[in-house]
Amino acid sequence: MTKYETVIGLEIHIQLKTKSKMFCRCDNFSVKAEPNTNICPVCLGMPGTLPKANKKAIEWLYLLGIALNGKIRDGFQFERKNYYYPDLPKAYQITSSTDKPVDGGFLELEIDRETRKVELDHIHLEEDAGKLVHGGDDYSLVDLNRAGTPLIELVTKPDIRSPKEAKTFVQRLRAIVRYLGISYANMEEGNLRCDANISLRKAGGKLGEKVEIKNLNSFKMLERALEYEEKRQSEILELNKKIIQETRGWDDAKGKTLPQRLKEETQDYRYFPEPDLPPILVGKTEKNGEFLIGEIKNKLPELPAEKEKRFEKEYGLSRADAKILTAEIEIARFFEQTVGAIEETDKSAEEMRRYAKKAANWILTELFYKMKEKDEDITKIKIIPFHLASLIDLIESGQISGKIAKEIFNEMYETGKEPENIIKEKGLEQITGLEELEKIIKEVISNNPKSVEDYKKGKEAALGYLVGQVMKETKGKANPQAVNEILKQKLV
Asked: Cα angle vertex 283, ends 277, 285, to 5°?
């Protein structure tokens, strides 16, 4: 039992993928744009300009709040958060961080086969700032293309108890966000950004002094930074020294956190209601507000946890396989489209469960192996679900062997061709002629007298060896079941 208990809270920023920015009509996608080209007078906060709230961004805020079991308030007022920074041209940020649209909520996690419920403090909506590009020790450049991007901020309670749990929380949140279709949520591209607050305390004691770690942009980085900080703080406490409340950054190359600034007191941001935006009103069952929660709730898709349970029940998948298949919406969609293509062939319920398990196995083994080997994402691969379904059907109907199927699959992955066309092009049709097959089997029996003798003495493994020799001679084109039956007849 460890002497100290770890307490972690997360602040997560999620860039929404709306077509336009939060308070103007500028294009919200600036990945390939030249610096400072995707801007307008509203982005820049020029005198006389008026913001207009993006309705879709507010709707998506509520959609996430519902998905995470939050309490939707009757309305909220955007406000100005005043501070100066070079990439904030207005010298204030429009936010809703004090008049929160969504209170509370929770997300259930499974950690080491135990279910944990992580409580949320709130969820709010704001605009993003621009970006500084540091060119060296003596200058920095400002790119305001990102300024005004719709940003959801989710704040947990200090309810997370380990670095692993923190990583799992962010992974699960990203999956939900992608299922909802509201953000690309790629940490490496800055669509999902995470700050972590961590402190140590004696078990059951009062909270210790917290340290904030800023801008953690990968799951691995989040876990490593928290593990380092956990160890660093523990060593300080063991020496009976005090933890300094501060903000630290993570140096991935050095594998350590480094101090950035002290946090001795809370900064006064001088919040006040945004005078140029009306209050946002919410209706529950009647249209007494611009946003009707009942209608938004009806847009909620099947989420990862629900899909996972359905895959187990409907297709008989193991919990572990169902969890992997539902972790990413693109993987889940590929699996469901493969199974859907198989269902069109009019299989019985029992056959469908068997085919679904085969599809899961092909995706989790062969497909994942090829994607890892090629360092490719499932959205970029050439193979399509319908073709994988056809391949599985060819195996199950006995038209090709498992060995040939793997060869065909590799070609499908590289070219995107249909399995039937690959079979014809490469001459991989299975040997079905009884006369030709019996001739090959007769030669194998003649060339392996010891294995024949072993089989007749009751050694079943010898039969497997002989089947293997036949498959080798036919280059995998023989039907293994037919080979088994003919061999048994010949060896009586």
From this structure: 170
Handedness of CA 79, 82, 88, 90 (dihedral sign): positive
Indicate the pTM of the whole model: 0.87
Q: Domain spans of the chain? A: 4-283, 304-426, 434-490
**pLDDT tens-place string over residues 356-380:** 999 999 999 999 999 999 999 999 9
Pairing type for strands 211-216 and 246-251 reads parallel
Write out the two tokens for 170. 């962010």
Terminal Cα distance for the chain, rounded: 65
Fold classified for 434-490: Arc Repressor Mutant, subunit A (1.10.10)
Q: Which two tokens stand for residue 364?
A: 């989790």
Amino acid found at 347: K
Q: Edge to edge, what strands does the sheet with 291-292 contain?
A: 75-76, 280-283, 291-292
Rounded to 5 degrees, what are φ and ψ at 431?
-75, 115
Determine how β-strand 71-72 pairs with β-strand 102-103. Answer: antiparallel
Burial zone of 33 (CB within 10 Å; 0-12 exposed, 13-18 middle, 19+ buried): middle
* Residue type (1 letter), 65: G
Non-local (6+) Cβ contacts of 73 within 8 A are 100, 101, 102, 103, 282
Cα 313 from Cα 233, distance rounded (Å)? 45
DSSP one-letter code for 279: P
Counting residues of the chain whose pLDDT is more than 70, the rounded percentage is 96
| Closest to 238 (Cα-Cα) out of 54, 491, 4, 66 | 4
User: Which residue type occupies 240?
Assistant: N
- Exposed, middle or buried: residue 418 (CB in 10 Å: 0-12, 13-18, 19+)? middle
Tokens for 56, please give them.
């879709």
- The string of DSSP codes covering 282-304 is EESSSSSSSEEHHHHHTT----H
Q: What is the pLDDT of residues 134-176, one digit of tens each?
A: 887 889 999 999 999 999 999 999 999 999 999 999 999 999 9
Alpha-carbon gap, residue 434 to 156, rounded angstroms: 68
